[in-house]
Design a protein that fits this description.
Four Helix Bundle (Hemerythrin (Met), subunit A)
């Protein structure tokens, strides 16, 4: 499994002529790294003097965000492997026989289903990743000031993850014939990218302001 590889081995596998892992797994990994950095900021905050001076509501907000960031980190790692698994399922569909009209129909249906399943993973990454912005914003506003740059990096990685995942959604959508389905997914993806850019810029403005 990808999650069990050493960093060097993963990078080398990515660079090889194997079609998977690819951009979808990298998008999920980027989201996992963003979540991990967000967790780090909170872990460097809890127990410190500034944290102890916060009221209970702010402390709970920080603690809750830490929990969410950790859970999402693990989920993105799972999706990194899942993306590769679904791609391989799609590749198997292309190997189905196509000697008769019936076989061609079955094969075409399996391929279309494979594309839909393949896009489900980056689509989930897109939606899950966007929600991390709220936790990064909390880290910026209430986290350890010495780790504020890490919150900025988390935001940059997160937007990269979102836009990378959307590209993987789109390339799978291009092979699907259900126009209504395609239109709805594209609309949601474009909205998330747009709103994500706004949130990233808001976070970077805060970060740069505190860095000086």
């Amino acid at each position: 499994m990808l999650k069990d590889l050493m960093v060097k081995d993963f990078v080398n596998e990515l660079a090889s002529n194997s079609p998977a892992p690819g951009g979808g797994s990298v998008a999920a990994l980027s989201a996992a790294l963003s979540s991990a950095l967000t967790s780090m900021v909170f872990n460097l905050t809890i127990g410190k003097k500034a944290y102890n001076e916060y009221d209970d509501e702010k402390k709970e907000m920080i603690n809750s965000s830490l929990k969410e960031a950790n859970e999402n980190k693990d989920n993105f790692i799972r999706l990194m492997d899942k993306d590769t698994e679904e791609f391989m399922v799609l590749m198997e569909a292309f190997k189905l026989p196509k000697n008769t009209e019936e076989e061609k129909q079955v094969r075409n249906e399996k391929i279309e289903d494979g594309y839909k399943r393949a896009l489900d993973i980056p689509y989930e990454v897109t939606k899950r990743a966007y929600m991390i912005y709220d936790h990064i914003l909390i880290a910026c506003n209430y986290g350890n000031k010495n780790a504020i740059s890490d919150a900025g990096v988390a935001a940059l990685l997160l937007q990269a993850a979102i836009e990378s995942a959307v590209l993987n959604v789109k390339i799978n959508l291009s092979c699907i014939n259900d126009e209504t389905f395609k239109e709805e997914v594209l609309k949601q993806c474009d909205e998330i990218v747009k709103n994500g850019n706004t949130k990233r810029d808001e976070i970077l403005s805060i970060v740069n302001g505190k860095i000086g």
